[in-house]
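Hi team,

As requested, here is the filled-out complex form for the zinc ion run. I kept the field names the same as last time so the parser does not choke. Let me know if anything looks off before we queue the next batch.

— J.
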Amino acid sequence: MRSLLICSAGLLLTANLSAQTPTQKIYPINFSKVAIEDHFWSPHLEKVATATLDACVSYTEDKTGRIRNFEKAALGSGKHEGIYYDDSDVYKAIEAIAYSLKNYPDKELEANTDGWIDKIAAAQQPDGYLNTYYTLTGLQDRWKDMERHEDYCAGHLIEAGIAYYNTTGKDKLLKVATKFADHIDKYFRVGNKPWVSGHQEIELALMKLYHHTKENRYLALADWFVEQRGKGYGVGKIWDEWKAPEYAQDDVPVRDQRKITGHAVRAMYLYTGIADIASETKDVGYLRTMDAIWDDVLNKHYYITGGIGASGSNEGFGKPFELPNETAYCETCASVGMVFWNQRMNMLSAQSKYIDVLERTLYNAAIDGMSLTGNRFFYGNPLASNGNYERSEWFGTACCPSNIARLVSSLGSYIYSRSATDLYVNLFIGSETTLDLNKNEVFVKQTGNYPWNGEVSIEVSPKKSREFTVFVRIPGWLKQPVPSSLYAYESNKANEYTITVNGKPTVGIEEDGYLKLNRKWRKGDKIDLKMDMEVRRIVSSDELKDNHNKVALQYGPIVYAVEDIDNPNAKNGLFLPDGTEFQVNYRADLLGGTNVIQFKAPVVSIDHSGGKVVQEEREITAIPYFLWNNRGKSAMQVWIPEKLTSVRVN
Ligand SMILES: [Zn+2]
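And here is what came back:
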């Protein structure tokens, strides 16, 4: 069975990016043009707008010294509080606030953010440099240790400046960011001074600045940063102390990179930036690298939850197939980066396999990073717990809370994309948007109850009746869990789907994972997609030692977990024999409303008085993985033994 699954997965893989004409094929429709009204996502967006941003604000300006650092830097004196990269958290919070203000206007929050921006602007040096750590500890040491995140902070400043301008029309922060970008361009690229970014981020930020300003020098600078890598230019802790250039993807020039290495967030931001650059420069070398790295991640380093970065020691990738469950690192930020990168790969290729990966990460590993209350966070997102792990209110290194906040508050950007003439429906999220296709206004509205069931309606209503194509993504999970040889459904059967237009069954052509619906669209036309959802047992390839003789449960795109709070002592005694019958029930009263999987299964335990192993048949409830640890600490497992012999009874 295991060898069979490898070839069936192989057959489903589509052509790689570098085999295609290297031009950007499709463009996302920005969240600012997409109104979300969705049973699943709206509560999360609301929590971000209230609880998550509240947490970010109070930890940024009261409970830690992040804003005080800017006040002191403006005065040029005082003790720097916190860690040298803390400025980035302020910028990332502003970016999240900017996205959220678009959907949830809040005068008070905006006025407070304006106050932060005044302080940031006042802390900028006359030459454009801006970093409170070096301003307060000695500007003579700036731009020396390439690990010290100065350019990383600049990147987040640029992203925040653009986001805040786009929402509010206020350009003060954007001007500060542009001045810093110009300083960096002059000092490094024009000044011909080598610099390897120790934490990539500035590349993708400069690409946003390039798109915003249309100034070629920002594209040139982004590309310059990428070209610096792998040439032995690194100076500072990563290189001199750790002797680990691979930690920052700097051991090999980018065009020669074929294996994923090092810190997962750094890697994701780098490849996102490279994808953005390649979409402009048509650099086939970059595309080849991304194809190889993507295949390496998916086939050797990818968790079933869509999480990446197995190892805590380097916050990143371990050896191939090293995917432990209980110690899985899977940083929330790495999942956010995985969403960014896969969206770019989809834009370059118009292939839906990248959205399959994006969706898996988004609905499982990424959203797991935030509690249902919106104000507690996971930094790492393991796939099993002995019951001692829980979300925190904040972290010393606080990258994750504002990162998940900016992703969720800009969720609208991932639902639809377009070419010049056609519409793509990528995610099934209740929402509406109006776009201009060939000078024709097209209103699009999606309704449904995904991911709890597979029925989705899409209204496509052009102002003038015209022929064009609507590409509807046919989710990869209907056929296989992931476009990867690591995982397969235990039974080979593909789930079916049907699609109708205005109630009439339609046979469209499936191309690169999308169903192509080409017709003359008229006002009020309606597509109904019905995807067959059932509980699927997932098995792993033999290389994943931690998953031997274990199965994971999935329903639609959602991976399930068994938490001991519902099933006492299940962590060490439950097993799931072949033929277990599953029932899926929607529980409005549980965890904000969720599907649960219920089944009868054996749980074994040791009767300590008699020293005997006791086996009992119990009613078991599995909940979506992302919802675990919302009711206090509890043991949890995603991968469940299939046989009594693989149960470890305590
Ligand atoms: Zn993080």
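Two things worth flagging: The two ends are 31 Å apart (CA to CA). The chain has three domains: 42-413, 429-531, 549-646.

Thanks,
J.
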